Amino acid sequence: MKEKIMFILKAIANFFVRLYKAVFGSKKEKIKNKHLFKRGGYAIAVIALVIAGTILFNMLVGFLADRITLEYDLTTEKKSTISKENKEYIKSVDKEVNLYIFAKSAEDYYSGGMAQAAQTKMFYTNNSEYYFQTTVLLEQYGKLNDKISIEYVDPNGTEVSAIISEYGTNYAYGDILVTCKFKSEDGNEIKNFRSLNISDIYTATEDDTYAAMGVTMYEIDGSNLETALTSAIASVISAERVKVGFIASHSRTDAFTYLRSVLELNNIEVVDINDTLVTKISDELDAVIIAAPTMDFAAAEITALGEYLSNDDKLGKNLIFYGDSSYQNLPNLYNFLAEWGLVVEPGIVLETNDSLHMEADYSTYLSLSATSDFSFISAGQYFASGYNIGLTASEDAAYAGREINVILSTNGTSALVPVKTDVSKKPEGYEMRKFASCAMSTESEFVDNVPSYSRVVAFSSVDFISELYSVSYKSMMDYDALNIDIIRFVTGVRDTSIVFEAKKLDATSELYVVSSSSAKVVRVIFAAVIPVAILVVAFVIFFRRRNK
Questions:
Q1: What is the pLDDT tens value at each position of the chain, 548 positions in all?
Q2: Per-residue burial over 66-98, b = 16 or more CB atoms within 10 Å of its CB, e = otherwise
Q3: Helix, strand counts (H, E) of the chain
Q4: Rounded alpha-carbon distances, angstroms, from residue 524 to 10, 516, 517, 529
């Protein structure tokens, strides 16, 4: 590539040298036959040189355009291209990745094909630019990394049957199949693939216009392509994948909905455990999650939790618990947590420091980082949460060979009060204490001379996985990153280079609306600067030749 660029650049430079000599050179260097100039021979020579130079310049631009993104973002918020963090990640991909888009072509996709396909699935949009935006973003992936190939496949063509036979599923118009084949460190052949459908690529809101007729429509109001596609690429190039189980039979499923989407977006497989009585937990799971438990665990289930974490004395398993003050009749579960040094006292925590709690709400407050021993938490970091249970760390667990680390805590100006206390009033007459908002207990053991760990992590509130908190406080507190980083840490996945988070793109406001100042710059350059420059050069050449 470097040699080709140098060759073209030398050719262009040689062209300008010859053009300069032809126009401004000495008399000895000029063509002696003056009658040739009068007959237009000189003009023909200059025109030929200009044409040759133009061709060489276009060759250089075309050559670079296939390898370098030559686009410039003129949108008001600089969001028409892939975000900087995702760009860096895409550039770092070192495996061959194939993107198959099931459409005849990019033009077919955005000129009506995708709109028609969406309608068959009860999706529609009043702004077809979303579909054009998809093809623009897809093109950028190939330009950022030549290891990422993009191919449009006719859903009704002969190529589809070969793809279906290899990856074992049917694909609808507009679906995107992401594939990667490579060898693992132990030499095994790995073939990973992941598909994205219309629900993955676009965000939509329910339209109940025809609900009375029993028909539900969905209006597309945004694009999630960038996040979904980069996440899919990360998934297929990975040789390992974390697998977690959600104990749905004992948890509030609605409380876990948002975290589920964040986990799946970050290449973490989620398996629901729906057994009414959980007496066995698969050792294939790297971690299990309990979110806002609605019922206590039976003695046999507590035994199952202990056996899972022990893993036949090999450890390497994890439990993550998110508390909820609305239901605290959990004596068996709380006793189990206490054995790991994570003590839960009945009640709700209120914060008395006016600079830390929300106005007229003493139950919703900021928790501060209590350690800098972990890469996923930094000094001064804080998170808001409401209706926190009374979680504290016990030193007694140390006697069982377990180490307790408080990750987030209150500031020592909080009090534990009965659940039915009026949270709009400042608590009086209660002991001021420091409570944990996130704490981790670790049991370690050497297995075949290699350290192995099992961990239990407890959060004081289910708000730490709430979509409302994650979205509302995104600019100040990154809940998604906190949860993903903790899961990566306890499961031993050290690659925390990027956390994929939902990023909704609005086709109108982000890809196609050019700021007024940028529009003026474009108009000035193309309507004035370039034409004037060409005229000036033309007149200079004309008058110099005329006066010779």
A1: 445 556 555 665 665 566 556 555 555 544 444 544 444 555 555 555 555 555 655 555 455 444 444 444 444 444 446 788 888 889 999 999 999 999 999 999 999 899 998 888 777 777 778 899 899 999 999 999 999 999 999 998 888 888 888 886 678 899 999 999 998 877 878 888 888 888 888 888 878 787 777 667 888 888 888 888 988 898 888 877 789 999 999 999 999 999 998 888 777 889 999 999 999 999 999 999 999 999 999 999 999 999 999 999 999 999 999 999 999 899 999 999 999 999 999 999 999 999 999 999 999 999 998 886 776 776 668 999 999 999 999 877 665 779 999 999 999 999 999 999 999 999 999 999 999 999 999 999 887 778 899 999 999 999 999 999 998 887 788 898 899 889 988 988 654 455 656 566 665 434 444 444 544 554 555 555 665 666 566 666 656 665 65
A2: eeeeeeeeebeeebbbbeeebbebbeebebebb
A3: 17, 21
A4: 32, 12, 11, 6
CB 93 within 8 A of CB 82: no
- What's the maximum distance between 2 C-alpha atoms anywhere in the chain? 110
**Tokens 């009658």 found at:** 35
CB atoms within 10 A of CB 175: 21
Residue in this structure with the two tokens 């007149």, named with its chain if needed: 539
Rg value, the chain, Cα: 32
The β-bridge partners of 251 are: 293
Which residues 6+ apart lie within 8 Å of 159 measured at CB?
Answer: 153
The distance in angstroms from the start CA to the end CA of the chain is 44
The partner residues of 219 in beta bridges, in order of sequence, read 124, 205
Q: What is the pTM of this model?
A: 0.62
Inter-residue contact 81 to 140 (CB < 8 Å): yes
Q: Identify residue 477 by its one-letter amino acid code.
A: M
Contact criterion met (CB below 8 Å) for 405 and 378: no
Count of all residues that appear for the chain in the document: 548
**Would strands 382-386 and 361-369 be described as parallel, antiparallel, or unpaired?**
antiparallel
Find the angle CA(349)-CA(351)-CA(355) to the nearest 5 degrees.
155
d(CA 358, CA 291): 24
Q: Which residues contact 144 (CB under 8 A, 6 or more apart)?
A: 69, 82, 87, 90, 91
CB atoms within 10 A of CB 472: 13
One-letter amino acid for residue 463 of the chain: D
Q: Say which residue the tokens 């950022």 belong to.
A: 144
CB 22 within 8 A of CB 53: no
Can you tell me the distance from the alpha carbon of 319 to that of 244, in angstroms, rounded to the nearest whole number? 9
Residue showing tokens 């239990």: 456
Q: What angle do CA 246, 469, 436 make, to 5 degrees?
A: 70
Closest-CA residue to 402 (of 446, 353, 440): 440
What CA–CA distance (Å, rounded) separates 461 from 324? 5
Considering only CA atoms, which of 299, 289, 294, 394 is closest in space to residue 338? 394
The amino acid at residue 368 is L
